[in-house]
Design brief:
Bound molecules: fe (ii) ion
Strand order of the largest sheet: 2-1-3
Order of helices and strands: HHHHEEE
CATH class of the largest domain: Mainly Alpha
Distance between the termini: 36 Å
Helix content: 55-70%
CATH superfamily of the largest domain: Ferritin, core subunit, four-helix bundle
CATH topology of the largest domain: Ferritin
Number of strands: 3
Largest sheet: 3 strands, antiparallel
Structural class: mainly alpha
Length: about 170
């Protein structure tokens, strides 16, 4: 890998993180009544996304949707089979209960993502058309469900009102 590709990957990671960090800062600013500062953080967050997507495009990691689905399956699978189990283990050893919770709900949801993607991949490979339905996301744990929000989130126990449609 060339130094520049390495740098693009590092910059992609940093800009992606800045996007989420600034969105969190914007929410906090809104909570504290700094509405103008919240506007800045939201604008800058969008700008960091522009940078991140430029870097990613140049790295060459955005391919055809059929390839992207497969890449997403392998990313999610790595997370729920290897990365999060190791992180949960260590967080348990270190007694960081909040981290255990955060890693554990993410772990369960990444497995759900891998399964949802596997279904999509199977339909694509059969050359069939996908059904038209909506996804709902739990604001508390990120659980992602098809068709309609459950009465109670099976991952974190949040109520139906905590689910939103992400588009
Ligand atoms: Fe995921
Ligand atoms: Fe949840």
């Amino acid at each position: 890998m060339s130094e520049t590709i390495k740098n693009l990957k590092e910059a992609f990671a940093g800009e992606s993180q800045a996007n989420r960090r600034y969105l969190a800062f914007a929410r906090k600013a809104e909570d504290e009544g700094y509405l103008q500062i919240a506007k800045f953080f939201k604008a800058a967050a969008e700008a960091e996304t522009v940078h991140a997507l430029n870097h990613l495009r140049i790295i060459g990691e955005v391919n055809s949707t059929t390839d992207n689905v497969k890449a997403a399956i392998s990313g999610e699978t790595h997370e729920f089979k290897t990365m999060y189990p190791e992180f949960i283990d260590l967080a348990n050893k270190e007694g960081n209960k909040q981290a255990v919770w955060s890693f554990s709900v993410a772990n369960k949801v990444e497995k759900i993502h891998a399964n949802l993607l596997a279904k999509i991949n199977a339909v694509l490979e059969e050359g069939k058309k996908l059904d038209n339905f909506d996804y709902y996301v739990c604001k508390v744990c990120g659980n992602t469900v098809e068709y309609s929000a459950p009465e109670k989130c099976p991952i974190c126990g949040a109520s139906k009102e905590q689910f939103f449609k992400p588009y």
